[in-house]
Design goal:
Blueprint (H helix, E strand, L loop, with lengths): L4 H4 L10 E5 L3 H7 L4 H22 L3 E8 L7 H17 L1 H6 L3 E5 L7 H14 L6 E8 L1 H17 L10 H6 L10 E4 L18 E4 L9 H12 L19
Parallel strand pairs: 1-2, 1-5, 2-4, 3-4, 5-6
Helix pairs in contact: 2-3, 3-4, 4-6
The protein binds 3-methylbut-3-enyl trihydrogen diphosphate (2 copies) and magnesium ion.
C-alpha cells in the first residue's frame, strides 16, 4: 500500500475499498450552470478522470471502474455522441503517458464493437500499451449496460448448454460472475456524482452488496477532496452481507 499522504493518513489501509466504481454524472448540468455548452462539461469531466485515477493509483486501490458511456447513451443526439466519441479517442491517446507514469493498466467493459472504428482502435492500442502495468486497473465502461452484459453472458452459457458442454444444473452464481465482461472482484464502493438516486443500469449483478455513496457534486467538480470524502464515508461502514456483526448471543431470534 502506498503512502496515503495527509488527506487520509488516519484511515487504515484495510478500510479503503479495493475496487471503487463511479457513475460519472452531471457533465451537462455543470456546463449549463455556467452558461456553457454540454460539450464543455464533457471536456471538463475528462480532466477529472486523470485527477481521480492518479489519486486512486497513489492510494493503492486495485481497481477503478468508471461508467463513461452507457448502452442507453446511444439515444442521445448524434452530435453529442459524435463529440463524446472524438473526445474518447483524444482522451485515450492523451492519457498514455499518465497511465505509464502511474503504473495504471487500462481495461474496458461493454459492447465495444459498437464504438466507432477510430475510438475502438485507440482503445485497443491503449489497452495493449498499458497491459504490463502492475498497479491500478482502470476499467472504462463503454457502450455498457448491465442488462446487456447479462444477456451476453446468458447467450454464452446457452450456447455451451446447446453444445452439450454444460448442464443447466452447472449454472451457479460463480459461473455467472465468471461469464461477465471482466470477471473479478465486485466493487466495494459505488459513487454517483450529481445527486441522482439511481443506478442507471450499471453493474447490476456486481453491486449486490456494494456500499453506495451519492454526492451532489457534478463530475467535473469531483476533486481529490470529494474522493477522500467518499472514501472516509466508506471507512465508517459495517459490511454485513446479510449476517450479523458483533451481535450479542441473546439478540439472536428463533
Ligand atoms: C455524464 O454526464 C456523462 C455521460 C453520461 C456521457 P451527463 O451528460 O449525463 O450530464 P447530465 O446528467 O446531463 O448533467
Ligand atoms: C449514467 O448517466 C451513465 C453514465 C454516467 C455514463 P446518465 O446521465 O446516462 O443516466 P440517467 O439517464 O440520468 O439515468
Ligand atoms: Mg446524466
Amino acid at each position: 500500500m502506498s503512502d496515503r499522504g495527509s488527506g487520509l493518513a488516519d484511515i487504515p489501509a484495510d478500510k479503503l475499498p479495493r475496487h471503487l466504481a463511479i457513475i460519472m454524472d452531471g457533465n451537462g448540468r455543470w456546463a449549463q450552470q455556467r452558461g456553457l455548452l454540454r460539450t464543455s462539461g464533457h471536456d471538463a469531466g475528462a480532466k477529472t478522470i486523470r485527477t481521480v485515477t492518479t489519486e486512486c493509483a497513489r492510494l493503492g486501490l486495485e481497481q477503478l471502474t468508471l461508467y463513461a458511456f452507457s448502452h442507453e447513451n446511444w439515444k442521445r443526439p448524434q452530435r453529442e455522441i459524435d463529440y463524446l466519441m472524438r473526445l474518447l479517442k483524444r482522451f485515450l491517446i492523451g492519457e498514455r503517458p499518465t497511465l505509464a507514469e502511474n503504473d495504471v493498466r487500462l481495461t474496458a467493459i461493454g459492447r465495444l464493437d459498437s464504438l466507432p472504428d477510430a475510438a475502438r482502435a485507440a482503445l485497443d492500442e491503449t489497452i495493449a500499451l498499458s497491459a504490463d502495468n502492475g498497479g491500478l486497473n482502470l476499467c472504462l465502461a463503454l457502450s455498457y449496460g448491465a442488462r446487456a452484459e447479462l444477456v451476453d453472458a446468458f447467450r454464452v452459457l446457452g450456447t455451451r448448454i446447446a453444445a452439450g458442454e454444460l448442464a443447466p444444473e452447472d449454472i451457479d452464481e460463480a459461473l455467472i460472475s465468471a461469464s461477465l465482461y471482466q470477471p473479478g472482484r465486485d466493487p466495494d464502493l459505488l459513487v454517483r456524482t450529481a445527486g441522482e438516486m439511481r443506478v442507471s443500469n450499471f453493474l447490476l449483478w456486481q453491486i449486490s452488496y456494494t456500499e453506495l455513496h451519492v454526492t451532489d457534486a457534478c463530475w467535473p467538480d469531483f476533486d481529490v477532496a470529494e474522493l477522500h470524502a467518499a472514501l472516509r464515508a466508506y471507512a465508517t461502514r459495517t459490511r454485513k452481507y446479510g449476517g450479523l456483526v458483533d451481535a450479542p448471543r441473546d439478540a439472536v431470534g428463533p
